[in-house]
């Protein structure tokens, strides 16, 4: 079974993405953190920060620091929009990786071993996918569940967009408040 999984592209894509995200995170640290990005890239910094935040939010690395720096550098509204865009894009990356990984694994066979109460959770329902994002680590669970269970990409996109708003506004508010101190 392990050999069969190694021959499929899904695990390699996930591994390549995680290695790339780790390298990106190390690079950002080496240049002085997100604050240095603003100075280094000038007017292009918001686009660079959105892309980096998307990659880090899709990987198991904290991306909230970018939300704080975005709002502290560009204000609450722009920081909220940048964070929202990064997290929505990150959701779609994570969704795509989960969808590809699920294609390589017999999911129905694995779900048969999951307790019945857990199998009955409405993981493909939009309300579930929006609300679970607001729990600790729920962002990742929602994206992975949606991708693995084959939620249509359009539905995942609007769910990710709606579900990312409260967190983006909150973190940008904190970042903008730090700027005022």
Core attributes:
single chain; 181 residues; mainly alpha; 11 helices; globular
Any chance you could write out the topology, listing elements then pairs?
Blueprint: H1 2-7, H2 9-30, H3 34-41, H4 45-58, H5 64-74, H6 76-103, H7 107-111, H8 116-119, H9 126-131, H10 138-148, H11 153-180
Helix pairs in contact: 2-6, 3-4, 4-5, 4-6, 5-6, 5-11, 6-10, 6-11, 10-11
Task: Please outline what is shown here.
With 181 residues, the chain is mostly helical.
Oligomer: single chain
Ends apart, CA distance between termini? 56 Å
Major β-sheet, in short?
A: none
Proportion of beta-strand residues: under 5%
Number of helices: 11
Helix content: over 70%
| SS-derived structural category | mainly alpha
What is the count of distinct domains?
Answer: 1
Mean pLDDT: 82
Instruction: Write the element-wise H/E pattern from the N-terminal end onward.
Output: HHHHHHHHHHH
- The radius of gyration over CA amounts to 18 Å
Low-confidence stretches: none
How is this structure best described in words?
This protein is an all-alpha fold. The protein has one domain (2-180). The chain is 79% helix and 0% strand. It has eleven helices and no strands. The protein has helices spanning 2-7, 9-30, 34-41, 45-58, 64-74, 76-103, 107-111, 116-119, 126-131, 138-148, 153-180. Helix 6 (76-103) packs across helix 10 (138-148). The longest helix has 28 residues, at 76-103. The radius of gyration is 18 Å and the shape is globular. The N and C termini lie far apart (56 Å). The model has no long low-confidence stretch (mean pLDDT 82).
């Amino acid at each position: 079974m392990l050999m069969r999984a190694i021959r499929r592209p899904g695990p390699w894509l996930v591994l390549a993405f995680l290695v790339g995200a780790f390298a990106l995170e190390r690079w950002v640290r080496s240049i002085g953190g997100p604050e240095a990005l603003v100075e280094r890239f000038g007017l292009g910094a918001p686009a660079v920060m959105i892309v980096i935040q998307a990659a880090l939010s899709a990987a198991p690395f904290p991306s909230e620091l970018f939300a704080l720096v975005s709002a502290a550098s560009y204000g609450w509204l722009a920081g909220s929009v940048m964070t929202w865009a990064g997290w929505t894009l990150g959701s779609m990356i994570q969704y795509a990786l989960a969808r590809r990984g699920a294609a390589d694994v017999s999911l129905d066979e694995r779900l048969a071993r999951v307790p019945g109460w857990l199998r009955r959770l409405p993981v493909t329902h939009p309300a579930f996918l929006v609300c679970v994002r607001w729990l600790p680590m729920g962002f990742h669970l929602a994206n992975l569940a949606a991708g693995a269970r084959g939620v249509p990409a359009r539905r995942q996109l609007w769910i990710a967009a709606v579900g990312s708003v409260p967190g983006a506004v909150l973190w940008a508010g904190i970042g903008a408040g730090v700027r005022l101190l």
